[in-house]
Please model this.
Amino acid sequence: MPLKSLKARENDLSSPSKQQEFLNNGIFSDGELPRFKDKIAETNQLPLKPKKLEILQLNLGYMCNQVCSHCHVDAGPDRKEIMTVDTMQQCLEVIKTTGAHTLDLTGGAPEMNPNFRWFVKEASKAGIKDFIVRSNLTIILANKKYHDLPEFFKKYNVHVISSLPFYKKEKTDKQRGSGVFDKSIKALQMLNKVGYAQEGTGLKLDLVYNPSGAFLPTNQQAMERDFKSALKKDFDIDFNSLFAITNLPISRFLEFLIASENYEDYMYALVEAYNPAAVENVMCTNTISISWDGWLYDCDFNQMLDLKVNSKVKHISDYNEDLLNNREILISQHCYGCTAGAGSSCQGTVA
Amino acid sequence: MANNYYDPADLRKFGEITEWSEELGSKFFDYYGKVFEEGALTAREKSLIALAVSHVVKCPYCIDAYTKDGLQRGITKEEMMEAVHAGAAIESGATLVHGVQMMNKYKKLSM
Model:
C-alpha cells in the first residue's frame, strides 16, 4: 500500500512515456503476445472508430484523500492538478451544445475540487440531467465540509458510482488504505438514508468492484449477488448495481504487477481472455475524456498515458464534436484490459 | 528445456497437449469445461472442490490455477484454507483407516 503517488516518489512509471515504452516492449515486441492492434485486425475491427457520443467524462483533478494501490490515475493528497474555473467554463460551453446525454465526473476525488458544487449547479442549468459522480465514499467523512454531500447529490439527482473493492474489510483496506472499509460503509449508510438505492426515489447508487490483485474479475452477476447479500446482512446497505471493472496495466497497478513479478502472467491472462464482442462496446466508442487542464482523450486510461485524441481538435477550447466523432481511437496493449472476458468499462461489463 | 520438472509458465501451454492427439485432447477439454459450468453445484463450489483436490493430488499447476480462480470468484482465504483442510483430512483419514488393517493383521498374527 503506497503512501505517496508515483509522481511524489519520483518513480519512473509516473512518466506516461515510460509506461507506454513498457507496454510496447518485452513480450509484445518479440511477438510472444500479439499487439492489440494486430489482435483487433484479425476480426476487422481496426481502425477502432467512435459511435454516437453519449458521455463526457471530466476529470476534475488528480487530488484525492486516498492513495489506492491500484489507482490508474496515480491520484493522492500530494497531487495538485485541479481543473480551474476557466476550464470548467469552457466545458460548460461544450455542454450546452453536445449530443452527449451524460456528464461523468471523476478524479482523484472530484468533490475535492473547490468549484465542484458550483460546476454541478451550472452544468445542471446548462441542461445536463444525467450526472455521474465517481465518489470514493470516504471523502464524505473526510472533513465536516463534505458531510452534506449526500444531500447535495440528492438535490441534483446525481448518480453516485462508488468503489468498494470487496464486501469485507481486509481486502478493501489492503487495496484502499487502513480504515477505508469502515468509512465506506458509514458513507453508504448515509447515502441510503437520504434515499439512495431506495425504492421510488430514483436515486441511483452503484458500486464498483475491481480485483484486489493480479487477477481478472469474474461473472458480474454472481459478484453482485454476493455483494448484495453480504452488505445487506452485515450492514443493512442497499445499492442498485455492481460494476465489475478490470484493472488496466498502467500507473500504480502496473507498478504492482512489475514489483510482484505478475506482469507477464497478467498480460497473458488478458490476452487469453480477449473477447472480440467486447471490442464492439468499449467505452472509448461512446465517451470523450477531458483532463483537468482541458485536453481531450479517448478514455481516462489514455489520459493517464498522455495519448491525446487523434484529431485536429485536441483541447476543449477548440472542441468540435463532428470532427472528434470522425477520429480514430488510439490503442495500445493496455486496451486488452477493456476487452477481456465480458469486457470492462466505467459502466462495468460490456459484452 | 527447463532444468526443473515444474515450470509455472508451462501451465499456459496446457492446451498444446491437443496438438499431439487432437481427438483425445479436445474431448478432455470439452469435458473439463463442462464439468466446471454451473450445475447442481455452483461454479464457486466446484472451484473449492477443485482446490482441495489439487492439494490432495499435489499438482502445483492446479494449485496456482484454482487459487487464482478462487480469488476471481471472490472466495475468501478462510474458505480456501478450509477446503484444503477438507482434502487433507480425507487424505490423512485414508491413511489412518488402513490402521484398522494393521490392527486386524496384528491381531490375527498374535497369539
Q: What stands out?
A: Chain B has a mean pLDDT of 95. Chain B touches chain A through ten residues (CB under 8 Å). The radius of gyration of chain B is 19 Å.
